[in-house]
Amino acid sequence: MDMDATVLSDALTRLKRAQGQLGGVIAMIENGDDCERVLTQLAAVSKALDRAGFKIISTGMQQCQMARERGEQPPISQERLEKLFLALS
User: 26 and 41 in contact (C-beta within 8 Å)?
Assistant: First the structure.
């Protein structure tokens, strides 16, 4: 399944934000910052990554449904999409 950056702009935004947050976490550890603050920020990075993944899966599901409605073969099988979804959990 091809990914279109314009369709996935929300996921891309989340990933860029997570990238910045992860850089911040690394800097916090390098600077010997408080453990609780580091873990709080790390949890935020993890949540941002999860949300981006779920957005990508959601977009794939929508693309498959639209293809079926047009009478076309979906770009990815339902089984493969489900396997990808479960890999996120």
Answer: no
